[in-house]
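Run log // design_07
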C-alpha cells in the first residue's frame, strides 16, 4: 500500500498541470454543475428546442431565491440594528442550546433531520419556532450541505403556510421537481397564522405532501396547537412527533447577554441589561429570545446608555415601549399596513387593555368569551384587530366557542389593566364608577402610579379633578363648602350611577379615590395643596375606619406630618387599628388571595412574606416616597412581628435592612424622628430576641 501511494504521488508531481486542471474541473463541476449545463446544451441542440434545465438546476434556483428571501426579511423591526453580527450570535447560540422536549412517549431528544412522517415544532409566541425552521433550512442548503445533498440526492424546501395555502401551484412544483429524489424535507412555518376555516385545507395539503413522500416539519404556537387538536384533530394525528421549545433559562439568557456585550461598542451595555436581569419585576423579559432581544433594543434606543437607577423606576414606560414594538412586529408578520389604511398601534393596546380588565373582573369564571360585548364592540371599529388577540393571550375552545384564558405574561396583563384604568379615567363617563371601584392588586396600582408619572401637566390635572369630582358627589364631602370649588359638571348617567351606589360600594369607591389622589405625582404645588386639602377634610370627617386609614397614608405621602403622627400613634396604641391595618395589608399585597380587604381579619398565623418584603424593600431605599412611608413601614413590621411571636424568625439580612434604615432625616419633624427611633430600637431588640 505505501509503495502504491509513493508511485501515485510521483505521477502527480510529474504531471502537476494535468492534476491541477482535473482538481479544478471536479470542484467546479461540484459547485457549478458543468456536466448538467453540457447535457442541457446537447439536448437543446439535438432536439432543436430551448435549453431545458435539469430538475436539480431548478431546485438550486429555488433554494437560492428562498435563502435570499429569508436572509433579507426581518421578523423583528429591531433586527435592523447597526450590530448585524448580533443576529448571527442569537441564531447560533439559540439553536445550539435550544431547550426542547418531546411530547408523548418519546424520551430522547429527536434528531430532526432524519426521515420521518412528520414533526411539529411547538412553543409560545416569541420562543423561536420560526427562527428554528429558518436556521435548519439555511444550514442544510449552504454550500457544504448542497454538495452532500447532491451526493445523497436530498431536497429541502421552506414555505410560509399562509402563502403556501394561497398558491396551489406550489404542490405542482413539489411534485414535478421531486422525481427520483431519495430524501425530501419540507419546512412549513406558521400553522398558527392561518384562519380557522383553513385547517381542513391544511389536512388535505399534508396528506398530498405525504403522497409525494416528503418529511414535514411545521411550526405552531402551543396554545393554537391545543385548539386545533379540538376542532381539526386530523392535522396533528398525521404528524408523528410533537416537540415543544421551552422558555429560556436565566443562565441561558445571561450567557446571551455576556456574549452580546462583547460585540457591542458600548462597554456599559452589559451592566445596564443586568440591572433588569437582577430585578424580579422584569424576569418575564428573559424567558424567550424575542422578549430579550426586544428589551435590549429598547435599552439601546434610550437616550443614554449610562448607568442610571432611574431607568428602573418607571416600568410603565418600558412596558409601553415593549408592547408598541411587539405590535409593529406583528403588523409586519400580518402585512396589515400594506392593505389600505394603516393599523393604529394604540387601538391594539386598547383592545388588549379591555381584555385584561375583563379577565381580572371575571377571575372566578377562569375565562371570557371572545364575543364579550365590550371586546366585540371594540373589534367592530377595525376587523383586523381580531387577529391581534392570539399570541399575546392564551385561548381555547369551550363548547365550540373561542375563550380567552389569560395573558402569556402576568406583568403584561397588570400593565394593561392599569392602562385601561387611565383610559377610562380620561374618558370620564359612567364607566368610571366601575373602574375606580374595582379592588386592584398592589402590582396594578403601582403601574397606575407610574402611568400617572408619564402624563403631561394638563392630562394629570384633568385626571386629578376627575377623581375629586366623583368623590365630591359622594357623601359626606359634597356638603363641605371649601371643596365644592373643585367639583366639575358630570353627565346625568354618571350622577345616576353615583346615587345608586350601596353603602359597601360607597366605602370602596371612596377608599380607591383617596388612594389614587394621594399618588398623583407632585409636579405642581397647586395640585399638592389641593390634594392635601381634600385628604385633610376626609380624615377629619370620615366615619369609616378603612377610609380613615387610607386618608392617613395619603396624607403621609403628600407630606402632612400632623395627620401622619396622629394615625401612627393610633396604630401603636389601638389594638383594633393595628388588626385592621394588618388585615388590609395582607389582602392588598396578596399574602391572602381572593378575600375582601374590608372584611378579612388577620388570624395571626398566615404567612406575611409579601407584606414584609414590600416594606423591607422600601426601608432599604432612600427615595422620597420610601422616606415618607417609613413611619408606617416600621410600625407595620413591628405589629406583624408582635402578632406572630411564636411562628416568625427574621433572617440576618432582614435585620441588617432594619438596622441600616435611616430615621434621622433632615426633612422629618422632631416628633417623627423621635417616634421612628423608638420603634426601630424596639423592633431590632424584638428581632434579635427571636433569632
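design_07 sequence
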Amino acid at each position: 500500500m505505501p509503495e502504491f501511494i509513493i508511485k501515485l504521488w510521483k505521477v502527480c508531481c510529474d504531471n502537476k498541470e494535468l492534476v491541477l486542471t482535473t482538481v479544478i474541473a471536479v470542484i467546479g463541476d461540484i459547485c457549478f454543475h458543468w456536466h448538467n449545463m453540457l447535457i442541457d446544451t446537447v439536448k437543446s441542440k439535438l432536439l432543436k428546442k430551448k435549453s431545458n434545465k435539469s430538475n436539480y438546476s431548478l431546485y438550486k434556483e429555488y433554494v437560492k431565491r428562498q435563502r435570499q428571501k429569508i436572509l433579507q426579511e426581518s421578523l423583528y423591526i429591531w433586527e435592523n440594528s447597526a450590530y448585524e453580527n448580533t443576529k448571527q450570535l442569537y441564531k447560533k447560540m439559540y439553536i445550539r442550546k435550544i431547550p426542547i422536549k418531546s411530547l408523548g412517549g418519546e424520551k430522547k431528544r429527536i434528531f430532526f433531520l432524519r426521515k420521518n412522517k412528520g414533526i411539529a415544532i411547538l412553543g409560545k409566541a416569541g420562543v423561536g419556532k420560526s427562527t428554528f425552521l429558518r436556521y435548519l433550512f439555511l444550514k442544510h442548503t449552504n454550500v457544504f450541505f448542497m454538495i452532500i445533498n447532491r451526493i445523497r440526492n436530498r431536497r429541502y424546501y421552506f414555505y410560509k403556510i399562509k402563502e403556501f395555502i394561497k398558491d396551489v401551484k406550489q404542490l405542482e412544483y413539489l411534485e414535478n421537481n421531486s422525481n427520483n429524489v431519495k430524501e425530501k424535507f419540507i419546512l412549513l412555518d406558521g400553522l398558527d397564522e392561518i384562519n380557522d376555516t383553513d385547517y381542513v385545507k391544511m389536512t388535505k395539503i399534508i396528506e398530498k405532501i405525504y403522497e409525494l413522500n416528503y418529511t414535514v416539519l411545521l411550526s405552531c404556537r402551543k396554545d393554537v396547537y391545543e385548539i386545533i387538536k379540538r376542532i381539526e384533530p386530523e392535522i396533528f394525528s398525521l404528524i408523528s412527533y410533537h416537540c415543544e421549545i421551552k422558555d429560556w433559562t436565566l443562565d441561558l439568557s445571561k450567557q446571551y447577554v455576556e456574549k452580546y456585550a462583547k460585540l457591542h461598542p458600548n462597554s456599559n451595555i452589559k451592566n445596564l441589561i443586568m440591572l433588569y436581569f437582577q430585578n424580579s419585576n422584569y424576569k418575564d423579559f428573559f424567558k424567550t429570545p424575542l422578549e430579550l432581544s426586544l428589551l435590549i433594543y429598547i435599552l439601546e434606543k434610550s437616550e443614554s446608555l449610562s448607568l442610571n437607577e432611574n431607568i428602573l423606576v418607571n416600568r410603565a414606560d418600558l412596558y409601553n415601549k415593549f408592547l408598541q414594538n411587539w405590535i409593529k412586529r406583528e403588523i409586519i408578520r400580518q402585512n396589515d399596513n400594506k392593505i389600505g389604511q394603516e393599523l393604529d398601534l394604540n387601538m391594539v393596546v386598547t383592545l388588549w387593555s379591555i381584555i385584561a380588565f375583563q379577565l381580572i373582573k371575571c377571575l372566578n369564571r377562569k375565562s371570557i368569551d371572545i364575543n364579550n360585548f365590550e371586546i366585540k364592540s371594540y373589534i367592530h371599529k377595525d376587523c383586523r384587530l381580531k387577529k391581534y388577540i392570539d399570541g399575546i393571550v392564551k385561548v381555547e375552545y369551550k363548547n365550540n366557542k373561542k375563550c380567552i384564558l389569560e395573558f402569556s405574561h402576568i406583568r403584561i396583563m397588570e400593565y394593561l389593566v392599569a392602562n385601561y384604568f387611565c383610559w377610562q379615567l380620561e374618558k370620564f363617563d359612567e364607566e368610571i364608577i366601575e373602574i375606580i371601584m374595582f379592588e386592584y392588586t398592589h402590582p396594578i396600582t403601582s403601574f397606575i402610579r407610574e402611568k400617572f408619572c408619564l402624563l403631561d401637566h394638563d392630562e394629570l390635572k384633568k385626571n386629578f379633578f376627575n377623581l375629586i369630582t366623583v368623590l365630591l358627589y359622594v357623601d359626606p364631602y359634597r356638603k363641605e363648602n371649601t371643596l365644592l370649588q373643585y367639583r366639575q359638571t358630570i353627565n346625568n348617567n354618571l350622577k345616576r350611577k353615583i346615587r345608586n351606589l350601596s353603602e359597601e360600594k360607597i366605602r370602596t369607591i371612596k377608599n380607591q379615590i383617596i388612594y389614587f389622589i394621594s399618588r398623583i405625582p407632585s409636579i405642581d404645588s397647586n395640585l399638592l395643596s389641593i390634594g392635601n386639602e381634600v385628604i385633610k377634610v376626609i380624615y377629619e370627617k370620615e366615619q369609616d375606619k378603612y377610609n380613615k386609614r387610607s386618608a392617613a397614608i395619603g396624607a403621609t405621602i403628600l407630606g402632612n406630618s400632623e395627620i401622619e403622627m396622629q394615625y401612627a400613634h393610633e396604630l401603636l396604641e389601638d389594638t383594633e387599628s393595628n388588626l385592621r391595618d394588618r388585615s388590609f395589608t395582607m389582602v392588598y399585597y396578596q399574602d391572602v388571595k381572593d378575600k375582601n380587604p374590608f372584611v378579612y381579619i388577620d388570624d395571626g398565623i398566615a404567612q406575611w412574606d409579601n407584606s414584609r418584603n414590600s416594606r423591607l424593600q422600601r426601608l432599604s431605599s432612600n427615595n422620597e416616597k420610601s422616606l415618607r412611608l417609613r413611619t408606617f413601614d416600621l410600625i407595620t413590621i413591628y405589629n406583624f412581628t408582635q402578632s406572630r411571636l411564636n411562628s416568625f424568625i427574621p433572617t440576618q439580612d432582614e435585620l441588617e435592612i432594619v438596622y441600616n434604615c435611616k430615621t434621622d432625616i433632615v426633612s422629618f419633624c422632631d416628633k417623627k424622628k423621635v417616634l421612628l427611633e423608638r420603634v426601630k430600637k424596639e423592633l431590632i431588640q424584638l428581632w434579635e430576641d427571636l433569632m
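The longest strand covers residues 154-160.
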